[in-house]
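Exercise 7. Given the encoded structure of a 310-residue chain, write a plausible sequence.
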């Protein structure tokens, strides 16, 4: 049985889960390839009996580059795929949306798996409430999921269609939020980025870290958010904080909602599906990541002031 796992991961959580699912599959079959989505060879997908696709939840759905990837797939009638995701407190409508897109390619989704994972957005406090995830238990569960998939895949291939799962029920408010976050809404409502060329050192980390090739620092004028999936990776990884935005409006909304996210996780902990790896009382909700990064750069510059022109 020939198996492949395709993943999109920026901060490593989804990759960790992908590796453990791969180990579980390999326990059963001795083989499972792993490919970064940006390097996946679409022409070879038909050679695989089972393919997994995994990504983080962004804005209660799959990131737009993952959506484009699914839209670019050829028809793969009768092929079995499975889906996995990582997320903070709320995974939203990701699986129904992804399953629908794969179904339109003739693909049968035979498994779903989701895992809490650390999260970092410029306007959220860091560490996040899901810091420390995926933990050892979740990684063990990912491996078990991989093993069980193989048994399930074989039985479905033999005709036992009763084993084909539907995605879990998604609460109506999560569906509504995912529907609100259209590309048009994001373009209007989410922060607009700019590059301060006085600060930029042309290191190009932002260009390399942009999953959709949306940045060109040496273009005239410099290009940013063209296109954009609103992952903010560029702003997080810029070593000199040259990528700027008005983060405060979003940070204020996060501060307002923080108790709500905490309640969601407290309830998940009560149900035994989440464990606190960090004491949430130690998280400073007034200190979002963008402020922390600003301080870090200023401290660094204080230690090593930029050389002055003669
Ligand atoms: C732009 C952005 C949007 C996010 N939106 C959500 C969300 O709607 N719900 C959620 O639970 N987590 C959300 N997260 C948290 C990510 O799903 C989480 O950090 C993910 O595990 C990161 O995966 P990676 O480490 O493989 O990159 C978001 C993170 C980012 C960066």
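Solution.
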């Amino acid at each position: 049985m020939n198996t492949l796992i395709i993943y999109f991961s920026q901060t490593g959580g989804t990759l960790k889960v992908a590796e453990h699912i791969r180990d579980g599959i390999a326990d059963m079959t001795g083989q499972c390839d792993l490919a970064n989505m940006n390097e996946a060879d679409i022409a070879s997908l038909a050679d695989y009996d089972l393919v997994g696709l995994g990504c983080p939840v962004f804005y209660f759905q799959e990131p737009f580059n993952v959506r484009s990837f699914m839209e670019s797939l050829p028809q793969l009638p009768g092929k079995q795929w499975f889906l996995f995701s990582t997320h903070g407190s709320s995974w939203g409508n990701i699986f129904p949306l992804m399953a629908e897109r794969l179904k339109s390619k003739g693909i049968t989704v035979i498994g779903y798996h989701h895992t809490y994972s650390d999260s970092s957005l410029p306007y959220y406090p860091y560490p996040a409430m899901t810091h420390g995830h995926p933990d050892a238990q979740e990684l063990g569960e990912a491996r078990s999921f991989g093993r069980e998939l193989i048994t399930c895949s074989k039985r479905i291939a033999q005709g036992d269609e009763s084993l084909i799962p539907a995605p879990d029920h998604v609460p109506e408010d999560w569906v509504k939020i995912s529907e609100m976050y259209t590309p048009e809404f994001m373009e209007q409502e989410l922060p607009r980025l700019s590059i301060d060329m006085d600060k930029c050192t042309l290191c190009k980390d932002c260009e390399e870290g942009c999953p959709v090739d949306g940045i060109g620092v040496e273009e005239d004028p410099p290009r940013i958010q063209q296109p954009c999936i609103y992952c903010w990776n560029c702003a997080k990884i810029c070593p000199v904080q040259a990528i700027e935005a008005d983060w405060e409006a979003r940070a204020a909304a996060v501060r307002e909602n923080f108790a709500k996210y905490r309640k969601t996780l407290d309830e998940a902990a009560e149900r035994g599906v989440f464990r606190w790896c960090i004491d949430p009382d130690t998280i400073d909700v007034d200190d979002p990541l963008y402020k922390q990064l600003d301080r870090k750069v200023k401290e660094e510059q204080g230690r090593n002031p930029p050389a002055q022109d003669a």
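Remark. The chain has a mean pLDDT of 97. Students should compare their own answers with the one above.
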